[in-house]
Amino acid sequence: MAEFKYAVELTHVDFPAPDVIAEDYDQESIYVSGLPFWQEQQFFTKGGGVLPWKNETDRACRKLAKHMTNLAESMEADLKVHKKPSPVTVRDALGIFLSILFWSNHRPVQLNNLMEQIKTLEIKPLNLEERLEYVLKRGNTFLGFRQLNELTLEQRKLIAKK
Q1: 155 with 96: CB under 8 angstroms?
Q2: How many whole angstroms separate alpha carbon 137 and alpha carbon 66?
Q3: pLDDT for 1 beyond 90
Q4: pLDDT greater than 50 at residue 48
Q5: What are phi and psi of 33, to 5 degrees?
Q6: What is the C-alpha separation between 59 and 100, in angstroms, rounded?
Q7: Would you state the pLDDT for residue 2?
């Protein structure tokens, strides 16, 4: 079994490579729990994949938003009983937000130099850089969770507006 490694474009301290076998996953899936940026991984390593940032972007973002709703409910349930959400759930939720953000700008997610990449996006929530920094540091807290929810909602509104 080969150790899974993210492509250089997807390396980021907050998104460590999961302990998985990539061949076990559906090449067409736009969301894989525990493995954010699945389509980008295929694109950057194999030059293939579904390319949801090019093909049927709105539909792909809506699918991700449904997954985000499920994750948000799970995180909120944990936080209500004063329990921190699991790191995998938080990472999945952050991954979904970043995917929606980049895909709605018709680009694959690129995590290396993330803040520089974000500056180049046209469609994004106000003060995204500062707010995202906060969520990356405190995504497993109630305030971090609320901020992530707000960012996702704002991005979806901006998508609908365009």
Answers
A1: no
A2: 24
A3: no
A4: yes
A5: -60, 135
A6: 11
A7: 57
